[in-house]
């Protein structure tokens, strides 16, 4: 994957010199930070063999709830907590339905996506929530050593998540539940609890993404969570080598996958390529990585 | 030494000439919120053609870069950042989200690049250097005046149903205001029912159906936009009022925008008058504003922006209107 990224960077350096400018590289990292955080959440769910299609809609809903609170004079810090809490609550709802009630992840999260999108549009009346106080942006759009906060948050979450999955009992249980739930139960892994926790984690990731994206856009709206975002999240995970069959995947690879997906979009934009060509290229990249994943599984 | 001076002089001359050549090139980045209808294709064609014509007149070679956000405001923000990084001299955006576009306006301002909001205004605290769009007030005024004249000529007292748009939308408010002011003063038309539709096709249908039941005497209709014509047609058909002009059951029909379905309906005699929603004139105005901003001149916009007027369309002149996107891009 790193080779693919390096080849892409070299090609871009030749065909679009602006690509390797400091400004653009920071742009790419900022653009990939929200996607990266969502991909971290999705990776944890994919490892359990599930999927969470509701993440973008959950992100939009929590952004609107917290955004409305801030717009109406609420403390921005409390507004951020509301975004995080509401998204985590939706994740917990998914987790309960899938982990404890044994419902199918695809159907449950599809339904949650529909509910969250509907509530988001209903609450906001289809309008965007904006005009937040400057104090909201002061912290979230700040830079430390020239690096934007959103990028630092993504890096920290990736490191912490990677450590959690590699070193903790929860991490081992997660992989075990994803590889074979039946075998995991025999080994006394609390599969229900672990599966539920994965969706809670995904919900929390949606909440963090909501906070960062709302600050970046200066607005929250129902259309923050379009269908195309789901495709980008899953693409980032698949490109990052996370298996859609469960039981395998690394968080740092998913974060790198998010960077690659963003670089593809950025590169196509800088080359002035057609939007439709971009869709074709993205689709081909995903199919290639799914093919490699399937081949690896068969071996 | 002489050779050295000659080399330095040549390099300096090349740099000056290079900078002159560069000043004549204008790179414009356009960010579409979406590209899911023929309207964007028509806009692109008109913009490129106008860029060629007006650019030549202004001594500029304009190159256009278009990207599409697929209905995602975050993608649009990223796309506009990419346009800025790619060296755009002017950025144009049709916003997916009027609030979120503020971040892009700020980014362009930080980079010292003029920003033009196209078709959709910024509702954020950040405002663009210019807004280019359709003139909703003028469109509704043109249609209503023509409609009054038609009914006056036919000696018909109009008892009209008004289908309003979303009254949170400034375009819808401008249209309903113009319709009501002119018709009230005309003495020819009275509005028997005002139907708010929130731009929702379902409400166009159910609201019109209810109004027709409550006011069977209604003989005319004004719609703030005909994008929902299939819903309007369905309600009129249910009430047996979908009949072409000349038929006793014909509902006199004034419309706004003249979208693709409406072109066919007007040709068949169901719509009597409309003002076109002008993709071509908007493109023309956009290019004019872009060139003015690139030259650091005041584009001379009004308080509501640089607005392109629509043209009056009737069944008799429909085929002769040039650059009518809804007819030419079926």
UniProtKB/TrEMBL annotation, chain B:
Any idea where the Periplasmic binding protein domain is? 29-297
User: Where does the secretion signal sit in this chain?
Assistant: 1-23
| GO cellular component term of the entry, any | cell envelope
Recite the UniProt keywords alphabetically: Signal
- InterPro entries listed in its UniProt record: Peripla_BP_I, SBP_2_dom
Q: Answer whether the UniProt record assigns the keyword Repeat to this protein.
A: no
Extract the GO molecular function terms from the UniProt entry. carbohydrate binding
Q: What is its main location?
A: other
Where in the cell is the protein located?
Cell envelope
- What family does the database annotate? Belongs to the bacterial solute-binding protein 2 family.
Name of the protein described by the UniProt record:
Sugar ABC transporter substrate-binding protein
Origin species? Devosia nanyangense
Q: What is the lineage of its organism?
A: Bacteria, Pseudomonadati, Pseudomonadota, Alphaproteobacteria, Hyphomicrobiales
